[in-house]
Amino acid sequence: THAAGSNVYFFDDDWKDLGASDTTSKRIMTTWEDKTLIANGRYVATIDSSGTLDADALVLPTGYAVVDFGFLPTGSSSKILVCANKDENGSIFVWDGTDTKYMTQINLENISRAEGYYIATELGVYTCNGATVDLFWRAPDSDTSIIGRRFLVYDIREKGEYVMLAGGWAASIRGMSGVWIISKNNGDSYFLASGGLGKYHPLIYSIF
Questions:
Q1: What is the mean pLDDT of residues 14-21?
Q2: Strand order in 77-86's β-sheet?
Q3: Residue 104's Cα: distance from chain center in Å?
Q4: What letter does residue 42 receive in the DSSP assignment?
Q5: Which of these ranges, 33-37, 82-86, 111-115, 164-168, has the smallest mean pLDDT?
Q6: Sheet of strand 43-47: strand arrangement
Q7: Structural contact between residues 204 and 190, judged by C-beta atoms closer than 8 angstroms
Q8: What distances in angstroms separate CA 155 from CA 13, 20, 118, 167, one per listed residue?
Q9: What is the value of pTM for the model shown?
Q10: Which of 10, 105, 110, 155 gets the most CB atoms within 10 Å of its CB?
């Protein structure tokens, strides 16, 4: 659908068939080397440079749904960190991008966002080396939050010695939503800006 009065210059409603009956899962898309990666429920679909679609290039265990992709540099190539959730749990599936089987599964909490090797979950932000994860940052007071897991990150950007987060609400007195800046050197965090309607309203979703 499109807004009344707008012009549609090109539309192909059957360009590619992902072959999935699931119409509610996120369809995150990103590029990796010469392929486009597409979240397709519990599958990862790929489109190569020739336009060939593989709707189930990687198959995850039943019940999982892909929510984002991270990347782990390893020499001349990289590994894909396929982030998926199942009920109250999340997992990172380390994949080489070509094999039909993932290499490693790393279990976590629900995952909200990935950028490079930074993985944001409902309890904090981790770094992943392909075998394990290390806690990078947790919102102030979130360890003692009485209402449980409420940490949410919409976007992550790394710039020099700092990592910037959009989101971060942890339902506690200092768990404010907006833009956070975290030092990679000492882990100190700074709340930079809110979304305009107060510190607890998640209205900032991306960082450019």
A1: 63
A2: 65-74, 77-86, 89-95, 104-109
A3: 18
A4: T
A5: 164-168
A6: 29-32, 35-40, 43-47, 53-59
A7: no
A8: 29, 27, 11, 7
A9: 0.82
A10: 110
